[in-house]
């Protein structure tokens, strides 16, 4: 009876919160109806009163995070500041929830995490700046894709998994040793390869890449006199 009363008190938000906590600790692969139910003190079957299946649960996890993110700044804000804020907010979400990039790897998934009114605001600000309506969506999507790509490269696994595996170790190619000689230690390539792929480097990459990307957008909106 106790389990039934607990199940009756459950809601989709509480279930999503428990699933997010599990994913933050162990990765999204650890999320199952059984594990989430156990964390809430009920059977996995009890969750089906509130969520359709695991895919539905993952979507609710993304939506739960999205509603807490101020994607679009209010007030009289220009298109560039809007996209900078959007990118920074999404990056912060990826840093807090390392698994999120695995379920948002499709740019459309990440854009869907932005509400319809916020999406309308972003597109309207771009159009007001001179961006054609049919291109404004591409600019918006490009910003999201930029964040996703850098997050995929630089952000590590969730806190409950082993860090520093795989991507940070460069592959040795025969071409790295021309003529069979030893590589020169102090080179730009050695320095580049020696830097860790971590959140700090990711933030620097995002700043550089986003700035260049938005400069290109600005140039297309206000082309220089030729």
Automatic annotation (TrEMBL):
Keywords: DNA-binding, Transcription, Transcription regulation. InterPro entries: Homeodomain-like_sf, HTH-type_TetR-like_transc_reg, HTH_TetR, Tet_transcr_reg_TetR-rel_C_sf. The keyword Calcium does not apply. The keyword DNA-binding applies. Gene3D superfamilies: Tetracycline Repressor, domain 2. Residues 32-51 bind DNA. Residues 9-69 form the HTH tetR-type domain. This is HTH tetR-type domain-containing protein.
């Amino acid at each position: 009876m106790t389990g039934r009363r607990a199940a009756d008190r459950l809601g989709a938000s509480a279930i999503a919160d428990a699933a997010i906590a599990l994913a933050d600790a162990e990765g999204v692969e650890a999320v199952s109806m059984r594990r989430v139910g156990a964390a809430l003190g009920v059977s996995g079957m009890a969750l089906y009163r509130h969520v359709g299946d695991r895919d539905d649960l993952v979507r609710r996890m993304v939506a739960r995070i999205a509603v807490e993110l101020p994607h679009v700044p209010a007030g009289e804000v220009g298109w560039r500041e809007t996209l900078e804020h959007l990118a920074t907010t999404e990056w912060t979400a990826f840093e807090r929830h390392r698994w999120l990039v695995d379920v948002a790897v499709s740019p459309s998934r990440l854009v869907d995490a932005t509400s319809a009114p916020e999406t309308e605001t972003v597109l309207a600000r771009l159009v007001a700046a001179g961006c054609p309506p049919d291109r404004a969506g591409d600019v918006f999507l490009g910003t999201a894709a930029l964040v996703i790509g850098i997050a995929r490269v630089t952000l590590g696994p969730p806190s409950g998994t082993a860090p520093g595996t795989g991507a940070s170790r460069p592959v040795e190619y025969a071409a790295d040793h021309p003529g069979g000689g030893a590589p020169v230690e102090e080179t730009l390539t050695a320095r580049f390869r020696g830097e860790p792929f971590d959140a700090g480097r990711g933030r620097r990459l995002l700043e550089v890449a986003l700035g260049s990307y938005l400069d290109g957008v600005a140039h297309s909106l206000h082309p220089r006199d030729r």
